[in-house]
Amino acid sequence: QSWKPLAGRRALVTSGPTHEPIDPVRLIANRSSGKQGHAIARALAELGAEVTLVSGPVTLPPPIGVTTVAVETAREMLAACQRVQMAETAPLDIAVFAAAVADWGVDGSAPQKLKKTPGAPPPAIHLVPNPDILATIAQSATLRPALVVGFAAETEQVIDHARAKLARKGCDWICANDVSPASGTFGGDSNTIHLVHHEGVESWPTLDKTAVARRLADRIATRFSPVTA
Ligand code: PMT
C-alpha cells in the first residue's frame, strides 16, 4: 500500500447550502451545489485523512471513503460540526468550511403552512442572525483545529474582503472565490481561487472543482508531517 501524507489526520469539511424553513413547505436557500466541498472531502480522504463531511441539502452522492452527516439548517450544521469537534479529546487536525451557510434564519418559522388569505397582505418574514460556524470552531478555546480553512464568496473586491474575513473569523487560510453570476462558481464545475493567508496571496488559475480540491489537499498535506503509528 502506498504512503499517504495525511494518514492519521482527522478532518472536518462543510459543504452545500443550508435551508432555513419559513413554514413546513417553504424555505430560504442559496445556489450552492456542494460540488466544491464534496470534492475537498474526497481529495483529503484520498490523501489518507479520516474525513467527516457535514453537508447541507444537495443532490450529490456522499463521497466514497468519507463519513457524511446530512443537515438542513445552519444551526444543525453547527451542532453537527461541534459533535465532530468534541468526538475525541485531541483537537481536529484540519477543518475546511466550504458550505454556503445562510447568514440569517427565519424567526419562529411557522409550524403549519402559511395560508393565502384573500385581501390580506403577504406575510412579513423576520430574519434573525445564524451562528457563524467557521468563527465558532476557529475560536474554540481548547479544541481549535490545527489548520482552519475558510472560503470567502464575494462578488467584488474579492481579495480585500477575504483578508477582512481572515482576520475577523480567526482562520488560517481563506479560499477567496468570485461568485458573481458571470463567474458561474455557484453550481458550476470550475472555480478561480485566491488563497489568502497571513503571509500573502496565491492566485490559482481557473481549475475544475476536483482540481481545486486536489491542489488544496496537497497544500494542506505540506503543512503536516506524517503521523507514525
Ligand atoms: O457548492 P458549489 O456550487 O460547488 O459552490 C462552491 C461555493 C461557491 C459555495 C464555495 O466555493 C464557497 O465559496 N463557499 C463559501 C460560501 C460562503 O458562504 O461564503 P461567505 O463569504 O458568506 O462565508 C465565509 C466563510 O464563513 C465560509 O467559509 C462559510 O462556510 C463560513 N460561514 C459563513 C456564515 C456562517 N453562518 N457560518 C459559516 O461557517
From TrEMBL:
GO biological process: coenzyme A biosynthetic process; pantothenate catabolic process
Keyword Ribonucleoprotein part of the UniProt annotation: no
A GO cellular-component term linked to this record: phosphopantothenoylcysteine decarboxylase complex
GO molecular function: FMN binding; metal ion binding; phosphopantothenate--cysteine ligase activity; phosphopantothenoylcysteine decarboxylase activity
Pathways per UniProt: Cofactor biosynthesis; coenzyme A biosynthesis; CoA from (R)-pantothenate: step 2/5; Cofactor biosynthesis; coenzyme A biosynthesis; CoA from (R)-pantothenate: step 3/5
Binding site for CTP: 103, 113, 131-134, 151, 165, 169
Catalytic activity: N-[(R)-4-phosphopantothenoyl]-L-cysteine + H(+) = (R)-4'-phosphopantetheine + CO2; (R)-4'-phosphopantothenate + L-cysteine + CTP = N-[(R)-4-phosphopantothenoyl]-L-cysteine + CMP + diphosphate + H(+)
Obligatory cofactor(s): FMN; Mg(2+)
Cofactor: binding comment: Binds 1 FMN per subunit.
Keyword Ligase: yes
EC number: 4.1.1.36, 6.3.2.5
Record domain DNA/pantothenate metabolism flavoprotein C-terminal: where: 6-222
Keywords: Decarboxylase, Flavoprotein, FMN, Ligase, Lyase, Magnesium, Metal-binding, Multifunctional enzyme
Residue ranges of the region described as Phosphopantothenate--cysteine ligase: 11-229
Top-level division of the source organism's lineage: Bacteria
Similarity annotation: In the N-terminal section; belongs to the HFCD (homo-oligomeric flavin containing Cys decarboxylase) superfamily. In the C-terminal section; belongs to the PPC synthetase family.
Described function: Catalyzes two sequential steps in the biosynthesis of coenzyme A. In the first step cysteine is conjugated to 4'-phosphopantothenate to form 4-phosphopantothenoylcysteine. In the second step the latter compound is decarboxylated to form 4'-phosphopantotheine. Catalyzes two steps in the biosynthesis of coenzyme A. In the first step cysteine is conjugated to 4'-phosphopantothenate to form 4-phosphopantothenoylcysteine, in the latter compound is decarboxylated to form 4'-phosphopantotheine.
The protein, known as: Coenzyme A biosynthesis bifunctional protein CoaBC
Organism field: Insolitispirillum peregrinum
